[in-house]
Amino acid sequence: MDSLNSAVQEKLDEAMPWIGLYIAAASAVCTLAMAADAFNGFTSKKLWLPCNYFSMNAASLTLLAVAMKLPMDLNTYLLYQADWHAKICSLLFMSISMSNFMSSLGSMTDKEIRTNMAALGILVITIVVNMWIQTFQLRGYFHTHMMIAALISTILMLLLLGTFFSSAISLPTSKRSLESKYQEMHRVAMREEEIVKRTQGLKIDQRMIAGMKKYWVMAETSNPQFVMARSVFCTTSSVICLFAASILQVVYIGYFKRSHKVTIGESASVYGYYTKWILIVQSHGGYCGIIAPVSRWLIAVRFKCLTICHEISFAKEIEIEEHWIQTLKYWRDSFSVIQIRDGKCRKYIHDVKWFALTFLIRVQIMMVLLNKLLWFIPALLITPFVLCFKKFKTRFLDKVTTSNEDMRSESGCSVELNLNRFVLLLDGEQELPQRTLKDICDQADKVMKIGMKQQPENLLQLLNKFGNFSSVREFDSLQVPSLHSQEPPNCWTLPLATLTSIAISLPNIAINHKATQLVSSVSEGLSLAMLIEKTLDQNGELMNIRNAADVAWAGVAIYRKWQQVDLRRISLDYKSSKNLIQELSSHAEMTVLEFKRKANDFLMENPLNGQLVL
After folding, report:
1. Three-class SS string for 197-253?
2. Of 286, 281, 395, whose CA–CA distance to 20 is shortest?
3. Where does the pLDDT of residue 113 fall: very low under 50, low under 70, confident under 90, or very high at 90 and above?
């Protein structure tokens, strides 16, 4: 029996190197995603490095779960120093990855925050418990410093998890506050635009540029990821990430100091030589992953230093704003959703909930205070160096400063616009530096320049050639009796696609280049019209009809077919435009009647289902 067990175990161990390769590959994908975010942030001059590729979602958490196979492995013998170095490296890689995608919390909905936080919490707690079991069970077989490094690594993960939860609790309130301020400043911008129209008489392009910059500043400064990146919790996660990177460096140097060299062909465990590949990939991934947290930390400390240069108020620094604890207060004071008829039992449950949430509110207050101190103290230490640099710059770089101010004025951040008023901040946040505001304005200028270079030339030619489009409005007339009892909502894209389909099927247009030119022009216009309708359709009432227009236009633009009718063939069959239009009208009527006859009520609610019936 023992020989059989040994044979089975040997067969299973033969596959373990492939598992090691899988772990290394998952770690490499995470590393590349973090590097892509860093590259994208620096190239777009968003030094807070938003999470576009490596964010907190199901894919990233799954990859991290695969990459954490070594710390969660309890059944495989990993009794070599190299294996424990790889385990600790995996723990630190997890901490750095968590710090890297923390700002992505801001871009999630409340439901996504709950589900992703639950998944992250389960993953972290599983890793920590497994690692503690291994550490205490094998404490007599390894050096003490290895055990201490493993425990510190797990503690860092738990601290980061607590920071995640504290930040997630305050996010819904912060978003609502910023949304309220955005709506208020939107009304201010609209009033100012009306005043400018009546008094100053600026040209329409100047008013549009000024209005665009106002809304651009509001959108960028209220960007949830940017708000998260400059928050105290994200700053603390960056500090923890730096500490984890320091431990990673010590572990990595210690590994090479003991092994003297890395020979890829060596095998130290059942994972084979891929154990060292895991160590190398995750170590380099950790070094790559600290770029974003360090950049965010430097930006946050720079903001705080500029504030301290003008005023130092310790009482103001330790003030707890309402948005940090408002959600917990609402949960505490609201009536319990549990329906219990017994009044005493219901009162007991409510009291327990009240005391529990009161305790959590105090914990949240302590977390905010500690995070603020971790932000304030480094900024206070760095402020003297910032002041010295500013004096040096004032004394020796006056000309450069003057030219930069002129460039700032030319870029549109002038006093006339006063864009500082449109910077959206949470309560207690310090004002953004002028350099940051200038970078935001430069991004708007860059987008406008790209738009000027990449204008829809075909659409402009069509608009210049035909200045009056009243016939389009007449075509979409309510005087035409509807074939369906449910009148579809008013939409521009579907009538435009239908009218263009009719136009390119006419005999004098279909046989020459005019049809191709018209399709190209309308395609450029439809993309803009669809974007506008999607933006204005806040309630999603036009979603089905927009989808129907998109599907119908795809058939026209690619295959020259409208409702399965070949427009090229029908233009050859009918020499008279009137007869051709009557044929298309008859086909459309038959399509609608056939749809009504075959489709059920729930299908009739979606115009796209007309394509399925056919």
Report:
1. HHHCCCCHHHHHHHHHHHHHHHHHHCCHHHHHHCCHHHHHHHHHHHHHHHHHHHHHH
2. 281
3. very high
Domain boundaries, the chain: 11-173+225-290, 459-613
**Which residues lie closer than 8 Å to 245 by C-beta, 6 or more apart?**
92, 96, 286, 287, 290
Look-up: residue for tokens 């995750």? Answer: 282
For residue range 448-502, what is the model confidence (pLDDT) as tens digits?
A: 888 888 888 888 888 887 766 666 666 666 666 666 666 667 788 888 888 888 8
N- to C-terminal Cα separation, the chain: 66
**Exposure string (b/e) for 178-206, b if CB count within 10 Å is 16 or more?**
beebbeebeeebeebbeeeeeeeeeeeee
Sole residue written with tokens 């708000």:
227
Residues, the chain, total? 614
Phi-psi region of 607 (alpha: psi -120 to 50; beta: other; left: phi over 0): alpha
Mean pLDDT of 32-57: 91
The amino acid present at 378, given as its one-letter code, is P
pTM, to two decimals: 0.81
Identify the three-state secondary structure at position 69: coil
DSSP 17-40: HHHHHHHHHHHHHHHHHHHHHHHH
